[in-house]
């Protein structure tokens, strides 16, 4: 028999040739199994050696026993004496009894697949076992078999082995039907042919039938089904000896995409292993039309009797293929990263002597490879020290990995576009993986960068130095140095990180595991005001709010926009408002926003740290007089519907720190409650003399800053044409009457409040939408103060009802309520009393002053006034309109009295396009017209 076997179907096939081919594959299989056992402990070896027996027999004392009805019997298997001895040492009562006759053998084959027996195997490598069973097994027996596999997984774990068992229906699998994952590193149902490729080149046969695929030459793969059918039909092989899992004639392009996206997902936590596989997928995808899988190269080598185990090693074969691809492209940087990936995967530190002074076959193979690469001791020492890599090396490695991940995503995106591969992968998957990568590696404002993408197992530093200083331009910054340095020594070292504010730096150290509970921090605070006790408290707050490691974002979370999950607010970091503003620290019950007689705001700065649903940690800094309002506004705007994030508020100041934190937490709770109310609501907060109005609706939070009381009243008087309630913080305008007035607001009625102050009175009106109108005017008596306003509002109501259909007008007239505001007196605070409305003397003609406002040229409205039905128009009188009306009114009065004149009726229908005007708009026009008219009367 020649070394090269080249069977041709049309020329006839010798059974001896097929037997020789099977023998070659089994030779390779035995070599791989021996190598797999060499890397295992004694107990792990026991698990692997006993697996075929445990699936072949049901014995109550053996591991994995479920019941006597569980499927048992491994096709063609007979245990050897060594295996039986191992079983008897495990369970003395076990005695093997060969089954007579031809009992059913429902377990058709057992296979290991993955890294076992390869250069990539290490002590953490798990056992992925394919349990190929009879397709005719009924559901109840399949359930028993699954329970048996679960029990074997538990037993293997007790022996120090991580084993996973996957039930395979070979007929369904050959058709491409899959349910569940088929390896512990499987992404789902989009990788049938790529998974089959990996199986054929890595699988170790443990017992049962051998793959039919072994006996079909690689050059016949394109007609695999025909070739296999002929072998069976002409009885060159027996059906009971082989297992058919299908061919690798072609790979749909969608599989490259699905597998590539899965490896991108895995690369964030395990970059070196995933990038190695990702590069192999890139090679396959680049050869799409004529792709030749590594498993076909493996089969060709066996047919050529090239059985050197090192060259047939799946990792070495994959490396060779990728190396050639990158060299042809001139991608030397990516080739260097590929070699890093392979070296770290093999995990045999060449800078250290071998264990027991004996070199493993893996170490010998790695030494040959690295000699070809031209590596030296310095390169070995660098990579072997990965467990000790700290910020500098991790950051350099991260840049290379991120570049590769970004390139991989772009390559897959372009491949999807070019091949229009949508059958197995879709936009949703691309979006999810794109967002996952973005969350892990994308830089954006305020985001705490994650630099340790599974690169170093421990980046914590034993000691660090934290320093606050000013640069040459006078800009302040915080710097973090490795080691415990004195202040002069820092000038001779480069910081590992520098930020403008403190919290982004501390959050970065915490997020990346650089600062942990055991890290000693030397502090040089400069003039920042930060003390060691506060620094310690800040780090504890970070650990409590954001324990590491963070969970990976779920697919459901990535399908939607990111939302906050946990928020930490840190108030006055490094600042003491009492010493900065020379305030007495004695008033424990005072409001933190209007403290002491000076009404000072004790919230000088807020650092906000938010962990969102994409596992991104975002830091923002708020300072200045509007720090609190800006922080609240941003926080409210980011809140998700119905599921507020966890919130912690901390203030570590020496004086009133806890009280300040509680006050801020109280405000946030009130705002959240107000926001969640069914109807649109507003919340008013006062900080010193400033007011902040939060307009809170479902999914919205608009903030309006108002500098003083006048600006507040003007804003509250704006027409808004919708019902809205206004909630006031408990200390807004303390001692003033406005909070009492606003607290009585109710929709769909008109409320009139009046306060008498000597010869002056202040009128306030809350209209049907709770807009506020306020006017100060001379006071003679309640009748003369309230009657003109009541008559005006009655006229306005009449006009409104006249615009409606008769059946709608009955409920259009709004109730008018009157209240008197009484000043504080003795122990009695300012209060409001309900009053009866004043009477209207309809016989008094001097109160009958009607105004009609219409649009005019150049956006200037035209006014027509009627006094006792006498018309005065700007068309007739021009700019002297109000003077003419004033002369007329004065002429009608006895003795020419000059008491104020009031508008009793106003029509704005033409000005607002026939639409319904809000009452506050009527009152504004009324006040302007009255001011102009009374000014003309005073001048006349």
UniProtKB/TrEMBL annotation:
InterPro entries named among the record's database cross-references: Adenylate_cyclase_1, Adenylate_cyclase_1_N
One of the Pfam families matching this protein, by short name: Adenylate_cycl
Occurrences of domain Adenylate cyclase class-I N-terminal (ranges): 18-214
Chain ranges passing through the membrane: none
Protein name: Class I adenylate cyclase
Source organism of this protein record: Stutzerimonas nitrititolerans
């Amino acid at each position: 028999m020649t070394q090269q076997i080249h069977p041709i179907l049309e020329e006839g096939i010798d059974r001896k040739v097929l037997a020789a081919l099977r023998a070659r594959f089994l030779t390779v299989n035995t070599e791989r199994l021996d190598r797999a056992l060499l890397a295992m402990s004694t107990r792990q070896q026991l698990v692997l050696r006993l697996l075929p027996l445990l699936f072949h027999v049901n014995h109550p004392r053996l591991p994995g026993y479920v019941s006597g009805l569980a499927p048992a019997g491994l096709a063609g298997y007979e245990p050897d004496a060594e295996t039986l001895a191992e079983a008897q040492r495990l369970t003395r009562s076990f005695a093997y009894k060969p089954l007579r006759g031809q009992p059913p053998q429902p377990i058709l084959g057992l296979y290991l697949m993955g890294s076992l027996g390869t250069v990539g195997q290490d002590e953490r490598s798990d056992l992925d076992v394919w349990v190929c069973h009879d397709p005719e097994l009924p559901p109840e027996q399949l359930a028993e078999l699954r329970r048996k596999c679960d029990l074997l997984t538990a037993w293997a774990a007790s022996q120090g082995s991580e084993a996973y068992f996957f039930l395979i229906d070979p007929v369904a699998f050959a058709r491409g039907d899959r349910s569940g994952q088929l390896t512990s590193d499987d992404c789902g149902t989009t990788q049938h042919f790529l998974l089959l490729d990996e199986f054929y080149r890595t699988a170790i046969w443990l017992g049962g039938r051998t793959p039919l695929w072994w006996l079909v030459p690689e050059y016949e793969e394109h007609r695999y089904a025909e070739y296999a059918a002929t072998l069976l039909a002409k009885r060159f092989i027996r059906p009971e000896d082989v297992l058919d899992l299908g061919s690798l004639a072609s790979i749909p392009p969608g599989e490259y995409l699905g597998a590539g996206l899965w490896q991108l997902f895995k690369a964030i936590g395990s970059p070196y292993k995933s990038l190695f596989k990702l590069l192999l997928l890139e090679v396959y995808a680049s050869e799409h039309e004529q792709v030749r899988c590594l498993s076909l190269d493996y089969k060709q080598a066996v047919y050529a009797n090239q059985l050197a185990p090192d060259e047939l090693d799946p990792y070495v074969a994959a490396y060779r293929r990728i190396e050639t691809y990158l060299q042809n492209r001139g991608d030397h940087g990516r080739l260097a990263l590929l070699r890093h990936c392979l070296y770290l995967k093999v995990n045999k530190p060449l800078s250290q002597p071998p264990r027991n002074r004996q070199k493993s076959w893996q170490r010998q193979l790695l030494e040959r490879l690295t000699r070809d690469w031209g590596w030296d001791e310095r390169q070995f020492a660098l990579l072997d020290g990965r467990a000790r890599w700290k910020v500098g090396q991790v950051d350099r490695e991260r840049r290379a990995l991120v570049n590769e991940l970004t390139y991989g995503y772009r390559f897959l995106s372009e491949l999807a576009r070019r091949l229009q591969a949508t059958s197995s992968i879709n936009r949703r998957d691309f979006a999810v993986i794109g967002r996952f990568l973005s969350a892990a590696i994308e830089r954006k404002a305020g985001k705490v960068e994650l630099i340790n993408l599974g690169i170093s197992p421990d980046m914590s530093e034993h000691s660090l130095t934290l320093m606050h200083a000013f640069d040459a331009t006078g800009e302040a910054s915080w710097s973090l140095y490795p080691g415990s340095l004195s202040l002069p020594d820092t000038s001779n070292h480069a910081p590992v990180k520098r930020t403008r504010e403190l919290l982004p730096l501390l959050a970065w150290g915490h997020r990346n595991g650089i600062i942990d509970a055991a890290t000693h921090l030397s502090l040089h605070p400069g003039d920042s005001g930060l003390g060691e006790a506060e620094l310690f408290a800040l780090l504890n707050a970070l650990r409590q709010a954001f324990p590491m490691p963070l969970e990976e974002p779920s697919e459901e979370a990535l399908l939607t926009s990111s939302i906050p999950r946990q928020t930490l607010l840190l108030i006055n970091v490094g600042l003491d408002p009492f010493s900065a503003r020379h305030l007495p620290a004695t008033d424990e019950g005072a409001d933190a926003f209007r403290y002491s007689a000076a009404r000072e705001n004790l919230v000088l700065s807020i650092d906000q740290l938010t962990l969102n649903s994409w596992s991104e940690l975002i830091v923002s800094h708020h300072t200045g007089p509007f720090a609190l309002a800006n922080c609240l506004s941003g926080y409210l705007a980011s809140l998700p519907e119905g599921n507020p994030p966890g919130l912690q508020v901390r203030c570590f100041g020496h004086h009133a720190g806890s009280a300040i934190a509680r006050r801020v937490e109280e405000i946030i709770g009130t705002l959240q409650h107000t926001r969640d109310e069914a109807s649109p609501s507003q919340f008013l907060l006062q900080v010193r003399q400033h007011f902040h109005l939060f307009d809170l609706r479902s999914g919205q939070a608009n903030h309006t800053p108002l500098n003083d009381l006048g600006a507040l009243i003007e804003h509250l008087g704006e027409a808004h044409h919708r019902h809205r309630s206004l909630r006031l913080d408990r200390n807004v305008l303390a001692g003033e009457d406005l909070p009492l007035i606003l607290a009585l607001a109710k929709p769909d009625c008109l409320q009139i409040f009046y306060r008498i102050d000597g010869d002056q009175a202040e009128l306030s009106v809350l209209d049907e939408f709770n807009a506020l109108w306020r006017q100060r005017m001379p006071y003679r008596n309640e009748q003369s103060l309230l009657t003109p306003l009541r008559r005006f509002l009655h006229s306005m109501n009449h006009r409104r009802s006249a615009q409606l259909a008769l059946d709608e007008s009955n409920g259009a007239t709004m109730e008018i309520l009157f209240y008197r505001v009484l000043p504080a007196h003795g122990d009695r605070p300012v209060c409001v009393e309900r009053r009866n409305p004043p009477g209207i003397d309809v016989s008094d003609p001097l109160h009958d002053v009607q105004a009609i406002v219409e649009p005019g040229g150049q956006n200037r409205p035209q006014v027509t006034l009627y006094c006792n039905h006498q018309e005065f128009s700007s068309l007739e009188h021009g700019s002297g309109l109000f003077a003419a009306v004033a002369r007329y009114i004065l002429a009608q009065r006895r003795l020419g009295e000059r008491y104020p004149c009031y508008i009793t009726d106003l029509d704005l229908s033409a000005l607002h396009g026939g639409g319904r005007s809000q009452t506050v708009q009527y009152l504004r026009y009324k006040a302007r017209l009255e001011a102009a008219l009374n000014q003309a009367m005073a001048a006349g």
